[in-house]
């Protein structure tokens, strides 16, 4: 297999034809950078001040609930962004991204479980569920679980490696379209069954929960939560800029060409395998990172995150916001999950009706999502 | 209770005179020995009277087993409707106030049951005899019953009861004190194939001291194990075919729709669920209004399940899916949305709990093919049903005008439209047909599994894999893939457990697709996109 590097530097049509000049060097337009800066200020300055410094009885105080919700949704937004890269820009719909998200989450969860130390219910060095299963020692895949650095490497490597191997075989045999979607769904389904087993060593259907510390610092204390929130936000912004750089590069343009007419790309002398495989792996790694950020904030990870339903929901976030735009998936993740937390409290019966209707309505009436709706409006005005 | 008693009494009356009139009349001493004293002496008395027990003896034993006997120091009374009768003469007698109840301990109780079973071996009713043999097989009868069993064995005419009796006889002989008898018994037991005999032999091998007999027992064990292994293998293949036929029912509709429109219908599982709930409703109607015809409610449920699911499918096609042609990934998401709504709808109407769908009585039970292999009727019915549905769909596709159109549109949509096929109408009919077969699958599933809002979710991933593996455009691919996956799944399950089996099957499919990206039976074509 040819390395992706040689391919990227291969023959590429004249870059950035038809792209506004301002985007070429600067990644974003003036408005875009202003948006990124304001998002940065909101996340890194405004929210911490409003939550921590402003007294709770003040009208400007931001409740812990909203910080937690915001942090959670930003993790989802990273997933939606990853989904957008693979689906919106490359035309490959993955229903297995829930698995990569959960794998990242489990890698973080293993570390957090070890951080509990002897404070668990059984006062053992082993995590509670292992004591419960009457295990005497850590299984082999927990060898490095007390090292933060190595587990963080796993957050990237495990989803990345799985995606690479799976993608290599799938793309090599040119599985595409709904076939690929179905196979990825089967993959996450099989993994879910595997993680549901107690013997697998990941806590069975209860998964991991009851975390106490991260890096020795109590995890529930407001400042820790705020740090996690800010890190998540900055990661989201970082991934957004990365995605921007990718889709504006030559490489990104080949991806979009693959989406629009893969056979023509092949006939023009490109090998789509390396392109698809690299963006697929990157997308999986992004999901893994999102999962790792998600677990300490939400405080639980279980195989439910790998269910086919969870995987397909990621796709709907991207679709609702608007595929093939980068801001769209983030908007979509906030919109759908905001609606979810409102519905499940106010009308729990109707949440699935709403979600189902959203799937149908977006595919039928909003092919470009919410962002497309606004674009159309501004174009009409112009 | 009283009904059961009555039955038991009438059974006893059915019992013929034992042997050829060699029975001795019950004496008062025997009656007394049976009811009074230590358990051991009573058992000895029981075994003594058993080989030539007469009608009255049998009645007394039955009465003892039913706790309907009282006794005093010098008399025994069989109690019936509050009155006492003398067991020997049958004359009604006044029961003195100091008469005690006869109390049986567990040991005695099992002895009494065995004794009664041994007596029932002489019933003229085949079923009673067969039941009696079964009871004897389950009990730990001892050598004392042997003469009785020998007698019954000699008199038995029905071959399967005779076989079972011989097994019981050998089991008793195996515990005999006579070495030659044990040797003979071990030889005879080797011809059996039941797990119970296997444990019996293993138990005996542990305590056997004679090397010859030991060797014979080991030989017998080997031959039994060989036979049991066959039973197990056949059982795995059968459950595999049963799973495969369910997958076939589920995947058939999916494959038609996917082949025709390139649409993966994520709501397929929910159409199955609708079929299952339709079956549930028909069942309720039959229970409420035609309880006499309850066994035949499936005759109404099958068309009802098909019709309801097909109708829902047609509505979905007209309202949602038709607008998404040429955008398969969007269709996938939209149909997922539909499935969420359908699931929630059913939850709102019927509740989140599973509902009870009862099998018609002719579907319960099964055929005993081998001692460790029973084929349940409901599974057999589903295999037959799947074959029928397959035949129906195959005929429809191969022989009718609609089938011709479906094949034409599957092969080349534009060309079919050019020669005047109303492709959009064909789409609708085909979608309704696919949905209808999903309804049939749901109807079938309601007979073997739980019916709840999540019914569709458990089979849907597997059936997608069937479609992926089988390829589209030809029913043969779906059939081979469904049965193959079903059997493969069950084989691996026996070897590695259910979850690992699923994962291995998935890996197998991913590897398989490397070789044949278009599935087992790909349509031949020259399209670059294919």
What's the number of helices of chain A?
Answer: 16
Gross geometry of chain B: elongated
Q: Would you tell me the overall average pLDDT of chain A?
A: 85
**In order across it, which strands form the biggest sheet of chain B?**
4-3-2-1-5
Number of domains of chain B: 3
Helix/sheet category of chain B:
mainly alpha
Low-confidence stretches of chain A: 1-23
What's the level 1 CATH class of the largest domain in chain B?
Answer: Mainly Alpha
Largest sheet of chain A: 2 strands, antiparallel
Q: What is the N-to-C order of secondary-structure elements of chain B (H for helix, E for strand)?
A: HHHHEEEEEHHHHHHHHHHEEHHHHHHH
Distance between the termini of chain A: 48 Å
> Could you name the ranges of chain B where pLDDT drops below 50 across 5 or more consecutive residues?
10-22
Number of strands of chain A: 4
Strand order of the largest sheet of chain A: 1-4
Radius of gyration of chain A: 21 Å
Strand content of chain B: under 5%
* DSSP, total strands of chain B: 7
Estimated helix fraction of chain B: 55-70%
At CATH's second level, what is the architecture of the largest domain in chain B? Orthogonal Bundle
SSE pattern of chain A? HHHHHHHHEEEHHHHEHHHH
Helix run count of chain B: 21
Outline of the structure:
Chain A is mainly alpha-helical and 382 residues long.
Structure description:
The complex is a heterodimer of chains A (about 375) and B (about 525). Chain A has about 375 residues and is an all-alpha fold. In chain A, about 70% of the residues lie in helices and about 0% in strands. In chain A, the strands form two sheets. A two-stranded antiparallel sheet of chain A has the order 1-4. In chain A, helix 3 (about 30-55) runs antiparallel to helix 9, helix 4 packs across helix 13 and helix 9 packs across helix 10 (about 250-260). Chain A is globular and about 65 Å long. Chain B is mainly alpha-helical. Chain B has three domains: about 20-105, no CATH class; about 110-210, no CATH class; about 235-515, ABC transporter involved in vitamin B12 uptake, BtuC. Chain B contains 21 helices and seven strands. Chain B has helices spanning about 1-15, 30-35, 40-50, 55-65, 105-120, 125-140, 145-155, 160-175, 180-190, 195-205, 210-260, 270-290, 295-320, 330-350, 375-400, 400-410, 415-420, 425-445, 455-470, 475-495, 500-515, and strands at about 70, 75-80, 85, 90-95, 100, 365-370, 375. In chain B, the strands form two sheets. A five-stranded antiparallel sheet of chain B has the order 4-3-2-1-5. The N and C termini of chain B lie far apart (about 70 Å). The model of chain B is unreliable at about 10-20 (pLDDT under 50). The interface of A and B includes residues 166 and 360 of A.
């Amino acid at each position: 297999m040819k390395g992706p590097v040689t391919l990227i530097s291969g023959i590429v049509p004249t870059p950035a034809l038809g792209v506004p000049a301002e985007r070429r060097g600067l990644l974003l337009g003036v408005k875009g950078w202003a948006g990124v800066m304001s998002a940065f200020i909101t996340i890194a300055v405004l929210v911490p001040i409003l939550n921590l410094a402003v007294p709770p009885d003040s009208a400007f105080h931001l409740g812990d609930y909203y910080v937690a919700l915001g942090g959670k949704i930003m993790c989802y937004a990273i997933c939606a962004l990853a989904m957008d890269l693979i689906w919106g820009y490359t035309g490959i719909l993955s229903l297995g991204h829930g698995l990569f998200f959960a794998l990242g989450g489990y890698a973080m969860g293993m570390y957090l479980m070890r951080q509990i130390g002897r404070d668990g219910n059984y006062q053992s060095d082993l995590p509670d569920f292992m004591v419960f299963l009457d295990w005497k020692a850590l299984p082999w895949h927990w060898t490095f679980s007390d090292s933060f650095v190595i587990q963080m490497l796993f957050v990237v490597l495990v989803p990345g490696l799985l995606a690479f191997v799976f993608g290599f075989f799938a793309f090599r045999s040119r599985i595409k379209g709904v076939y690929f979607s179905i196979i990825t769904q089967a993959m996450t389904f099989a993994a879910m069954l595997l993680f549901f087993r107690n013997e697998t060593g990941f806590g069975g259907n209860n998964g991991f929960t009851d975390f106490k510390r991260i890096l020795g610092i109590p995890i529930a204390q407001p400042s820790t939560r705020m740090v996690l929130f800010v890190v998540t936000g900055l990661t989201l912004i970082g991934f957004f800029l990365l995605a921007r750089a990718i889709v504006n590069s030559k490489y990104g343009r080949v991806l979009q060409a693959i989406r629009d007419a893969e056979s023509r790309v092949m006939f023009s002398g490109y090998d789509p395998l390396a392109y698809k495989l690299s963006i697929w792996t990157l997308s999986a790694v992004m999901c893994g990172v999102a999962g790792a950020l998600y677990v300490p904030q939400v405080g639980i990870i279980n195989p439910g995150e790998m269910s086919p339903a969870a995987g397909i929901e990621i796709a709907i976030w991207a679709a609702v916001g608007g595929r093939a735009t980068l801001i769209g998936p983030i908007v979509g993740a906030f919109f759908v999950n905001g609606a979810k937390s409102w519905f499940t409290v106010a009308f729990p019966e109707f949440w699935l009706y709403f979600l189902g209707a959203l799937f149908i309505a977006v595919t039928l009436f909003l092919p470009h999502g919410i962002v497309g709706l606004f674009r159309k409006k501004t174009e009409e005005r112009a | 209770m009283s009904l059961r008693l009555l039955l038991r009494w009438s059974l006893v009356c059915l019992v013929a005179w034992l042997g050829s009139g060699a029975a001795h009349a019950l004496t008062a001493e025997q009656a007394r020995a049976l009811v009074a004293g230590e358990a051991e002496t009573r058992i000895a008395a029981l075994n003594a009277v058993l080989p030539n027990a007469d009608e009255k003896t049998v009645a007394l034993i039955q009465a003892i087993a039913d706790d309907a006997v009282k006794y005093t120091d010098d008399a025994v009374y069989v109690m019936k409707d509050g009155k006492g009768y003398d067991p020997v003469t049958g004359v009604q007698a006044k029961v003195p106030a100091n008469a005690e109840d006869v109390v049986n301990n567990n040991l005695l109780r099992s002895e009494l049951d065995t004794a009664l079973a041994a007596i029932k071996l002489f019933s003229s009713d085949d079923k009673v005899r067969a039941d009696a043999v079964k009871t004897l097989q389950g009990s730990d009868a001892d050598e004392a019953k042997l003469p009785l069993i020998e007698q019954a064995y000699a008199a038995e005419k029905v071959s399967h009861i005779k076989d079972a009796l011989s097994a019981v006889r050998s089991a008793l002989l195996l515990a005999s004190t006579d070495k030659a008898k044990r040797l003979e018994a071990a030889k005879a037991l080797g011809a059996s194939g039941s797990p119970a005999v296997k444990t019996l032999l293993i138990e005996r091998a542990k305590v056997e001291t004679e090397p010859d007999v030991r060797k014979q027992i080991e030989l017998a064990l080997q031959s039994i194990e060989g036979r049991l292994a066959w039973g197990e293998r056949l059982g795995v293949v059968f459950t595999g075919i049963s799973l495969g036929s369910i997958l076939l029912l589920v995947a058939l509709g999916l494959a038609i729709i996917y082949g025709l429109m390139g649409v993966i219908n994520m709501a397929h599982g929910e159409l199955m669920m609708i079929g299952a709930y339709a079956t549930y409703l028909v069942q309720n109607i039959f229970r409420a209004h035609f309880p006499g015809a309850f066994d035949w409610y499936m005759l109404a449920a099958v068309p009802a399940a098909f019709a309801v699911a097909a109708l829902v499918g047609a509505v979905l096609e007209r309202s949602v899916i038709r607008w998404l042609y040429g955008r398969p990934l969007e269709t996938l998401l939209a149909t997922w949305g539909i499935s969420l709504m359908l699931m929630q709808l059913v939850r709102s109407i019927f509740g989140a709990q599973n509902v009870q769908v009862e099998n018609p009585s002719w579907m319960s039970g099964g055929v005993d093919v081998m001692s460790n292999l029973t084929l349940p009727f409901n599974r057999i019915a589903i295999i037959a049903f799947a074959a029928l549905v397959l035949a129906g769909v195959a005929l429809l596709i191969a022989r009718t005008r609609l089938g011709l159109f479906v094949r034409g549109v599957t092969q080349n949509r534009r060309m079919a439209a050019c020669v005047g096929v109303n492709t959009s109408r064909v789409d609708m009919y085909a979608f309704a047909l696919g949905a209808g077969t999903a309804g049939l699958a749901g109807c079938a599933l309601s007979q073997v599994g739980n019916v709840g809002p999540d019914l569709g979710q458990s089979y849907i991933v597997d059936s997608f894999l069937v479609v992926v593996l089988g390829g589209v455009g030809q029913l043969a691919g779906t059939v081979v893939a469904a049965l193959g996956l079903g059997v493969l799944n069950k084989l691996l399950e026996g070897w590695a457990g259910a979850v690992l089996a699923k994962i291995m099957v998935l890996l197998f499919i991913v590897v398989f697709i490397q070789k044949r990206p278009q599935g087992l039976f790909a349509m031949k074509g020259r399209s670059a996109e294919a």
